[in-house]
Automatic annotation (TrEMBL):
SUPFAM superfamilies: Nucleotide-diphospho-sugar transferases (SSF53448)
Superkingdom: Bacteria
Pfam families in alphabetical order: NTP_transf_3 (PF12804)
InterPro entries to which the protein is assigned, alphabetical: MobA-like_NTP_Trfase, Nucleotide-diphossugar_trans
Stretches that traverse the bilayer: none
PANTHER family documented for this protein: MOLYBDENUM COFACTOR CYTIDYLYLTRANSFERASE (PTHR43777)
Protein known as: Nucleotidyltransferase family protein
Residue intervals of the MobA-like NTP transferase domain: 10-173
Length: 199
């Protein structure tokens, strides 16, 4: 692994309040004998990310108290209720100055995405100008990798629940798609019915 690859940091967005789940924060949902936030952080680590930053919001103090997140940098997003865009901005701000050349972004509520998909996207990193996205049957999904050269532009356009969508659309020609449909499922845990996906 080259020095540059070593500098792809994992960025886990885990601040949501689970509004459609009766106000249960997704980070605290049980999964595989632990918490969903623990599982997702381990996926980033197992996928080869150099360090993992976890953005917390809803019931952040409870997540800090209950979740075992060794070696992770925990980032508080006091504006989490305004949407995922604020969490993305908080995470990228926290990564600035760490030496990271890219951020590999995973959402806490997609447990069908494992280390194999993370590793594929990470391996597509070439330089701080890289823009890489997992694809499922050719359709862009998560995880996504943002080279550091794009962070300011992404932060400037990340609003509400749209995250980096506007930026990626604007730079669609530069986004490298990495097919992951054979190793991952990109469903979200959004509603009570989705809880059936948790183990």
């Amino acid at each position: 692994m080259t020095d540059d690859e070593n500098r792809v940091a994992g960025l886990l967005l885990a601040a949501g309040g689970g509004r459609r789940l009766g106000g249960r924060p997704k980070a605290l949902l049980p999964h595989r004998g632990g918490l969903l936030v623990e599982h997702a952080a381990e996926v980033l680590r197992a996928g080869g990310c150099a360090g993992v930053h976890v953005v917390l919001g809803a019931r952040a103090e409870e997540v800090r108290a209950r979740a075992a997140l060794p070696g992770c940098v925990l980032v508080d997003n006091p504006e989490w209720e305004q949407g995922m865009g604020t969490s993305l901005r908080a995470g990228l701000d926290a990564l600035a100055g760490t030496g990271a050349r890219a951020a590999l972004v995973l959402l806490v509520d997609q447990p069908g995405i494992g280390p194999e998909a993370v590793a594929r996207v990470r391996r597509a990193y070439r330089s701080p100008r890289s823009l890489v996205s997992a694809a499922y049957d050719g359709v862009r999904g998560h995880p996504v990798l943002f080279g550091a050269a794009h962070w300011a532009g992404i932060a400037a356009t990340a609003t509400g629940d749209r995250g980096a969508r506007a930026y990626l659309k604007e730079h669609a020609d530069a986004v490298e798609l990495v097919e992951c449909g054979d190793v991952a499922e990109a469903y979200d845990i959004d509603t009570e019915a989705d809880l059936a996906h948790l183990e």
